[in-house]
Specification:
Layout (H helix, E strand, L loop, with lengths): L16 H23 L7 H18 L5 E3 L17 H18 L2 E4 L2 E3 L26 E3 L6 H5 L4 E3 L3 H13 L4 E5 L3 H4 L2 H4 L3 E5 L24 H4 L3 H14 L2 E6 L8 E2 L5 E2 L5 H4 L2 H8 L8 E6 L15 E3 L5 H4 L6 H13 L4 E3 L8 E2 L18 H5 L1
Parallel strand pairs: 1-2, 1-7, 2-5, 6-7, 8-11, 8-13, 11-12, 13-14
Antiparallel strand pairs: 3-4, 9-10
């Protein structure tokens, strides 16, 4: 708590002890009745008012559970570092954020989360909605960043890892207190492992101001290939989406009924560059071929029976690109549910977060790349490669040549 100067007290006439007891009992009874009424199915003052009050009570509960020690990594994801002047995609930023949350959980500290997430304009074009008509296919949402709580339910995250935002009153209190505590207030650390941070040297400090890897925050999780070392699964942040995004996803899931889903990542991943001989090279040599409709049909035939509803999430720009799949499946896109999404979605990060929730609930979900050995995928190319640029393969005949 912040150290405050002692207030000036004035003499008051003592109150009757009986009166104080009566007032206390009345207050307790009122709160009990109020909580009972709120939890009663038929009760409404309106129901919206009850829901709002319940959310306030829940939010206060999480605030009261905030630990008394804090971990700060920076005011932007991957900053300080080489990405301070750039902005990575949602997946990249989530990897870094998940790494920071894992460290906070390991150290048993509250994580001070950036209050905003930057939005890369490359990933923020409205054409991803697969909309046709008179709209400008290259139109972008204006925002270059968006409030973190518009993406994630912070109270829900706090049930696993307590968090506060770096624009909250709590954070300012922490900063003021850390300055008053002197050497016991804050440690500025760089190049220190999380194991070292868990030593007695740092235990009693109010705040650890961590300078993470200058490459990316997620580089601090160097042993992520060791699955047993991963504290938070890849699905953690996707499942922590803000309530309005989860509600939109649930509505669409209800309309889809029994369905399967595929995530087709093309766009940025199928780029090529010419080598010194003028030959095209790619980091994912089979991806362009494997994510074309005719090859998708062959690949998913053994997993998805004909006649099924197939929800498609993709960053492919070409309208109607996946239409050939309709010879076997009933196709569904985000654009089929614009009336649900338009009031909620402000940028493509939020759109993809909704699409992820939909795909996670599918009977069969097929990714573009495998995240682990049990995943179904459209391509066998590794998601993370050795930076070897290879000649693209576009046909089955080229495969054997």
């Amino acid at each position: 708590m912040a150290i405050q100067s002692s207030p000036k007290y004035h003499k008051h006439k003592p109150r009757s002890p009986i009166l104080i007891v009566v007032i206390s009992i009345s207050a307790i009874l009122f709160l009990y009745l109020l909580s009972t009424l709120i939890s009663t199915p038929g009760f409404s003052f309106s129901s919206a008012g009850a829901l709002a009050l319940r959310k306030v009570m829940q939010s206060r509960y999480h605030r009261h559970q905030v630990l008394d020690k804090y971990l700060y990594w920076g005011d932007r994801i991957d900053c300080p570092g080489k990405h301070c002047d750039s902005c990575e995609g949602l997946g990249h930023q989530e990897s870094s954020l998940r790494c920071a949350l894992e460290e906070a959980m390991y150290l048993n500290r509250t994580f001070v989360m950036p209050s905003r997430m930057c939005i890369n304009p490359i990933h923020n074009k409205k054409w991803i909605f697969h909309q046709s008509g008179n709209s400008n296919s290259e139109e972008r949402w204006a925002a270059s960043s968006c409030a973190m709580d518009s993406f994630y339910d912070l109270d829900l995250i706090s049930e696993t890892v307590p968090v506060i935002l770096d624009n909250s009153k709590m954070w300012y209190r922490v900063l003021l207190t850390s300055m008053k505590l002197g050497n016991r207030g804050v440690a500025h650390v760089e190049g220190v492992s999380r194991t070292e941070l868990n030593s007695s040297q740092y235990w009693n400090l109010l705040l650890i101001n961590r300078t993470a890897s200058p490459l990316s925050w997620f580089m601090e999780c160097k042993d992520r290939n060791n699955r047993s070392a991963i504290t938070l699964p890849y699905s953690f942040l996707p499942s922590m989406a803000a309530a309005k995004l989860r509600d939109a996803a649930d509505k669409i899931i209800g309309l889809l009924g029994d369905y399967d889903a595929i995530h087709v990542r093309r766009g940025d991943k199928i780029k090529t560059r010419k080598d010194r001989f003028g030959v095209d090279r790619s980091l994912h040599p089979h991806l362009d071929r494997d994510t074309r409709p005719e090859f998708i049909l062959q690949r998913i035939d053994k997993w998805v029976p004909p006649g099924r509803t197939l929800f498609i999430a993709s960053n492919e720009r070409t309208l109607g690109f996946f239409s050939p799949l309709s010879v076997r499946y009933n196709l569904a896109y985000s654009s089929n549910y614009v009336s649900i999404l338009d009031p909620v979605v402000e940028n493509n990060y939020q759109l993809f977060m909704i699409e992820r929730l939909i795909m996670m609930k599918a009977k069969t979900f097929i990714r573009t790349f495998k995240e682990d050995d049990t995943d179904l995928s459209l391509t066998d190319d590794p998601k993370k490669n050795t930076k070897i640029w290879q000649k693209p393969v576009y046909t089955l005949e080229e495969e054997g040549s």
